[in-house]
Amino acid sequence: xxxxxxxxxxxxxxxxxxxxxxxxxxxxxxxxxxxxxxxxxxxxxxxxxxxxxxxxxxxxxxxxxxxxxxxxxxxxxxxxxxxxxxxxxxxxxxxxxxxxxxxxxxxxxxxxxxxxxxxxxxxxxxxxxxxxxxxxxxxxxxxxxxxxxxxxxxxxxxxxxxxxxxxxxxxxxxxxxxxxxxxxxxxxxxxxxxxxxxxxxxxxxxxxxxxxxxxxxxxxxxxxxxxxxxxxxxxxxxxxxxxxxxxxxxxxxxxxxxxxxxxxxxxxxxxxxxxxxxxxxxxxxxxxxxx
Length: 291
Fold this sequence. Notes:
Elements: H1 8-16, H2 18-24, E1 52-56, E2 59-63, H3 91-102, E3 109-113, H4 121-132, E4 139-144, H5 146-149, H6 156-163, E5 170-175, H7 184-195, E6 199-205, H8 214-226, E7 230-235, H9 250-261, E8 271-274, E9 283-284
Parallel strand pairs: 2-3, 3-4, 4-5, 5-6, 6-7, 7-8
Antiparallel strand pairs: 1-2, 8-9
Helix pairs in contact: 1-2, 3-4, 8-9
């Protein structure tokens, strides 16, 4: 069961924004049983080594931690995120992952995820060193929500770790859902990350009552581009148990994407996609008039 956890920054923000409150504060709707799967992407089934998920041929996802500074109520890993002890990763674990990667030469990309890798800098620095020294690894990605949930944590210690880990291009993939998240503190954190030499991308999940609105999406993605963040993906909700109330219909999502695409340039328009256990890749979804 996903725990409830926020910090003083988010608590103050949630008092001003109902959207932030919906994102981070539990609701009764989470308790409605829908008999959805707890692991909709079947990640646990694709974990050959503790902490390493190998679903796609050329890349692996590493769960550096199950900790976040705050827990999003729509989290796709709500079955495990917040169980911090269960997700503790050691240097020995990282070396076991590296050994697995070496045995699979087609793997050329590592995605550090969780939980939030930025909350465990001591593990992060070891992971970047160990994976970064593998000759077959060409790209490293880090998934984080920290610029939104506690932007002041993007401090000199973390920035120095990132600056000194650039043998490969280092992509930071940040989860953004709504313009209310783009506070002055968050904008400053993004500026610092850009100045560290990282390439910034965003991913978004369609969420009912939060961003199922063309104007909201236009404002979010336009502002992100102006801050040096390329909108990368926007997903249909994976629907782990407890998140059904966030789901937007495919029909409405397609209409929203069609409307959005008429308002923004390609740079500000993310790929609309479905992540599923049934395909070896994220499935691009169609929208707009089909010939």
